[in-house]
């Protein structure tokens, strides 16, 4: 299964002459979420150079009538994936917040499978981070949803 297919839109990494280096390791990120958000219902699957992949275990509480995963569950995964990808680059900044989230549902997810979000940072600036997330049902390389979101990065003190 290929979890990183060609994106729906071209990706342009803009770094304004500075190298974008990963500041936070997967282990540090897991420890951060364990302490700061123990209720978080996801697993960091992959922490690659260009993308992060997170898994959301789908439970019966996440299903809606019609036997499908609810929109809020899928949208929460996308928002969380952008947060993880942004924090990986900027450091463990708890006050980074979502400023926008655009969402497209592409097909019905498989109700008895986990969902995976693969996030790439499209632009990282001083005050904003823009990420793109493609979401899949586990075991299926066809995307079920696509999202682009922006996080506001608080100024350094």
Number of helices: 2
Radius of gyration: 15 Å
Q: Tell me roughly what share of residues is in helical segments.
A: 10-25%
Structural class: alpha+beta
Tell me the domain tally.
Answer: 1
**The CATH homology group name:** Hotdog Thioesterase
Query: Low-confidence parts lasting 5 or more residues at pLDDT below 50?
Result: 1-20
Shape estimate: globular
Average residue pLDDT: 87
For the record, give the distance between the C-alpha atoms at the N and C termini, rounded to a whole number.
Answer: 44 Å
Any idea of the CATH class? Alpha Beta
Can you tell me the CATH topology?
Thiol Ester Dehydrase, Chain A
Instruction: Summarize the helix and strand pattern as letters.
Output: HEEEEHEEEE
What share of residues are in beta strands? 25-35%
Draw up the topology in text.
Blueprint: H1 26-36, E1 43-47, E2 52-56, E3 63-64, E4 68-69, H2 71-90, E5 97-105, E6 115-124, E7 128-137, E8 143-152
Report on this model:
- The protein is of the alpha+beta class.
- The protein has two helices and eight strands.
- 20% of the residues lie in helices and 34% in strands.
- The strands form two sheets. Strands 1-2-6-7-8-5 form a six-stranded antiparallel β-sheet, with helices on one face. Strands 3-4 form a two-stranded antiparallel sheet.
- The N and C termini lie far apart (44 Å).
């Amino acid at each position: 299964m290929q979890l990183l297919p060609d994106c729906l839109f071209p990706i342009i990494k803009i770094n304004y002459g500075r190298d974008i280096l990963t500041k936070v390791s997967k282990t540090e990120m897991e420890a951060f979420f364990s302490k700061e958000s123990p209720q978080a219902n996801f697993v960091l699957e992959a922490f690659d150079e260009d993308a992060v992949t997170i898994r959301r275990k789908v439970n019966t509480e996440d299903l809606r009538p019609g036997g499908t995963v609810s929109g809020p569950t899928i949208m929460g995964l996308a928002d969380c994936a952008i947060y993880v990808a942004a924090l990986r680059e900027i450091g463990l900044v708890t006050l980074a917040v979502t400023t926008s989230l655009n969402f497209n549902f592409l097909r019905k997810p498989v109700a008895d499978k986990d969902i995976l979000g693969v996030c790439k940072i499209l632009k990282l600036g001083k005050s904003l981070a823009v990420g793109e997330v493609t979401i899949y049902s586990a075991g299926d390389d066809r995307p079920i949803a696509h999202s682009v979101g922006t996080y506001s990065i608080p100024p350094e003190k």
